[in-house]
Write the structure tokens for this entry.
Amino acid sequence: MSETFGEFFKQRRQEKNLTQKELAKLLIVSESAVSKWEKNVARPDIALLPKLAEILGVSEHELITASIDNQARQEKIQAKKWRTVSFTWSLFFYIAYTIALIPCFICNLAIDKTLSWFWIVVSALLLAFTFTNLPKLITKNRLLFLPLASFTALCILLATCAVYTKGDWFWIAIVSVFFGVSLIFTPIYLCKYGIFARMKKYADFISILVAFVLLNVLLLVADFYSVGNDYVQNHWYWKFGLPISLVVYLIINLLVAVRFLKINRFLKTGAVLFLADCFCYLVPPLIRTKNPTLQRTLNDCNIFKADFSTWKPEITLDNNIHCIIFLSVLALSALFLTIGLIRHFIKKTK
């Protein structure tokens, strides 16, 4: 049953144990004005609504509509609970980080008479901070600043570890991490931010190009660090790294380009499966290398050496498994292509 404004107003006043005179005194109005409100003869001035709503313990919206908005109140309660949980969560980690730092600081000074590995603990906690507390502190452009903050903190951690261990691996580690981060976030940024709106149509190709460039930077750094050890005596990037990455780059672009063809999705899926299957299993048998480990891996993937009469691990087991995978994907691509062709001709005849 809906209430009139006067009934709603009177009920709220009585719930607060206020008389008409007491309420009038709080609002600095006459008692007769309050009486007229309850009798629906008049309404409060709009300037009084904020203070009146506060005194009666309702919102201005509830006062105007003369009804309790239970959904809004429930949402307000839930929001308050969430703020409490969020504050408790942040406070817990602040205390935990402090508890972790103080003993490490004392132990490092007491045992080593200097601060050494303590800085590794500090940088590790800084990295953890970017995942636990920083998201609450950043309210705008989180997608941009949070990954950047985490990457920076990780760089500090790796640099601290490199200094502590006196290692020369810092740059290859940083390039590897940057490659992984870019691989994930480049497509997202291209689609998310308006600055890349003109390139959105070609976001796939741009992302692949960025990945290709960063991968080759990583391979160059790895080549620099690997030369001279027990396994690698000469530079291998120009002989193997660049050619193989270039072939992979071209093949992936070819697969992505399929989506621009004006054919139905079944034909596109079948074409992608067929090209990927051929690339994965028909190209490796053509590659020859002097690296025994790499050549052994390529031989294990050689589907032409499959022999289903023999399933011994040291002879044909891997070849047989890869051959089954190749034939299964080939059959799946044939199925999609067949369905796609049927749908194409049905649509054409209509």
Summary: The first helix runs from residue 5 to 15. Residues 176 and 218 are 6 Å apart (CA to CA).
